[in-house]
Structures are given as C-alpha cells and as structure tokens.
Amino acid sequence: MRVVYFSEDYTPHDHRFLQALAKTEHEVSYLRLEDRGQELETRPIPERVRLIDWWGGRRRLAWHHVPRARREVRAVLDRIGPELVHAGPVQGPAFLAALAGFRPLVTMSWGSDLLWQARRGAGRWKARLTLARSDVLVCDSEPVLQRAVQLGMPAERIVKFPWGVDLDHFSPGPASGLRRELGWEAEFVVLSTRAWEPLLGIDVLVNGFIRAAAGCPELRLLMLGSGSLESEIKQRIALAGLDQRVHYAGQVEYERLPEVYRAADLYVSASHSDGSSVSLLEAMACGLPALVSDIPGNREWVEPEVNGWWFRDKDTDELANGLRQAVRVHSRLGEFGLAARRTAEARANWLTNFNELLRAYGMAATKEKVLA
Fold first, then answer.
1. For the chain, which residues score pLDDT lower than 50?
2. How far apart, in whole angstroms, are the C-alpha atoms of residue 178 and residue 181?
3. Are 266 and 332 in contact (CB under 8 A)?
4. CA 346 vs CA 89, 285, 340, 352: distances in Å
C-alpha cells in the first residue's frame, strides 16, 4: 500500500515510526510540514522512505500560511496518489490533511494535542473537524482515547497503543562513566529529559529541586534538552547558588540516551499534560524509578511505592517532598527499578505494540478512498 506519513518536523519519534514502516511491505513517503531550523533528529531518514519536496517543508509556517498549505498539501497528494495518509499531531498535519479532503485518513494524536490544545477555542475546533474527517484515530493512552470520544470520535474507530520503546536499546546496565566525569559517584542524581517549556512543568521541577536541595546536600540534577524557558531556569538555579549541583547536558543523541539514564538514581517529570510519555517509558525500561506529576497519563504507568511516586500537579512542595523521600529510601531504589523494568517489558515493547498501527491501517483501508 502507498502510504504518506505526514508530521510537523523530523524528530526522534518520527524516525522511529519511519524506520519501522520502512521494514513493512508498504511504500512509504514522508511529508514534513515545516522546517523549524532545529536539529531535532540527527539520524538520516531511513532507507526506502521517500522524502517529499514541497513548498511547506522548506520553511517555518505561521497561521496565515494555512490556506496556501492546504492547497499545496492537496496538490502533493493528488500528484503522489497515496492509498492512505497517516498524519499527526491533530491540529497540525492531520488538520491540513482533513482540510484537503483526503480519505482514508489515519490521524495520530501526540497526546497533548487532544489533552491540552483541544480544551477550547481554535484548538478545540480544529480537533473536532479533524476527527470528524478521520477514518481511524491512533492514540497512546486511555485519557487521550476518552478525550477523543468526548470530541466526537467513535470509540470503535480508535486504536490505542502506547508507542513503547526499544527494550534492547533501553535496558538496565552498569552506571555510566558520566557520573565519574561529573564527580557525582557518591551523590543522588535526579534526571530530567523534558523540553524546557511551560506545558512540561520544567519551572515546577526546578523550583522543587531548589527547595529539596536546601536540606539534601547530596542531591544533584542532570538536565537534558533546552527550550523557551532556558534563560529563566538557569537564572533561578544560579540565584539559588546551585550551579555546581546542576549539569546541563543539552541535546543528547539517541545512541547515548541509555548511558544518561544509567547515570541517574531517579527520573522526574513535572509535565502538566501527557499521554504515554516516551521519555518516562525509556527511563523505566532502563530500570529507573520515577517521580511524576499526578496526571492520568502518568498514572497508567507509575504505581506509588512500587516503581515510583506521584506528586500533585503544579505542587512544588509535594515535588520537593518526593525528592527527599527518594533520597531517604535510596537503598530500596533497586527494587523500585526492577519493578519499573518489569512494567516496561509487560506493556511498553515497541516491536510488539507497533503491530497495532498496522491494524489501524487495515481498518482505515476498508473504507473507500474519497477526495472531496
């Protein structure tokens, strides 16, 4: 089957889907909505996947580009003649594919597009329109599925599967040399891998760390990535006098990520919205217990006092208390980590879960293709 995979930009998540699709019998083309000028994924586009050169993929798009983008997407699809389009997130590529009138359309939610962006206004309107014109929705968690139903998507046209991770690549192992390089062998290392954005609660995480660090001299913070709050976050840490207890690792290549997870004692996420967070699943697969915000997507994976803990969303004091609690029970974290790995093995195996996407393709293909 000729498939167009349509997403916003080229990210590690896109690479994973394209790599898996390239190993199937499908003929896959990749339509990139825009080029944001950021190097989000350094690995080349997988062989057997054709990158579509078009007007939109060469620039960053704004809202006033939507009318032209819709026409250009329609022209691209007319030229290629795919038998199915797989598009997401909902308010971006999937919305444009829906506006272009292509069927069958498999829309893939990226979690916060339905849980957060579809709460009101234009984001909600776009989500409703897109779902109404989609043949199948693919989502990664029960909260996203329930939200899609509330927005009008029939439950029988939804395929749920947590994206999962490569359990061979992300696996427990000996402590990496990173702790030694940082001089943190005897310290308690907390890891954050989320982008430095308000929706992901990076300010809550840092404020909680600052409060906990005052009474825990062994506490250290390893931060990956960057984002719009970078200058503010670094300023807060500097004003608290904690520069020497925080390491900014920047963007870490996929191949090195397991080494980073193995350098930590605890994974922490203060995100305000998530489906099945891939970074959480990567951490659990590497045998890390997790301290996460008490939101529905996280509750599907983290069981308090078994493989981690929750803290009330946006509550800096509870996060700080959770960090102190983890330090106090440091000797028990090994058993928490084993439980985290077992959870990942049971429900987060990418190789097994990917078959659900192919099932979604089959469901969509049973509907007649229509260009409205």
1. 368-372
2. 5
3. no
4. 27, 10, 10, 10
Chain centroid offset of residue 197 CA: 13
- SS3 at position 164: coil
CA dihedral 230, 166, 273, 269 (to 10 degrees): -50
Q: Which tokens is 94 given?
A: 């999937």
Q: Output DSSP code: residue 200.
A: G
Could you read off the pLDDT of 112-169 as tens digits, one per residue?
A: 999 999 999 999 999 999 999 999 999 999 999 999 999 999 999 999 999 899 999 9
Bridge pairing between strands 158-160 and 136-139? parallel
Judged by DSSP in three states, 122 sits in helix
Residue 122's CB: how many other CB atoms inside 10 A? 11
- Ordered structural domains, the chain, with CATH: 2-161+354-365 (3.40.50.2000), 177-349 (3.40.50.2000)
C-beta separation of 113 from 91 below 8 A: yes
d(CA 296, CA 43): 32
Single out the residue of 345, 191, 338 nearest to residue 262, CA to CA: 191
pLDDT of residue 39: 64
Convert the pLDDT of each residue in 171-216 to its tens digit: 999 887 999 999 999 999 999 999 999 999 999 999 999 999 999 9
Parallel/antiparallel/unpaired status of strands 219-224 and 27-32? unpaired
Residue 372 is predicted with a pLDDT of: 31
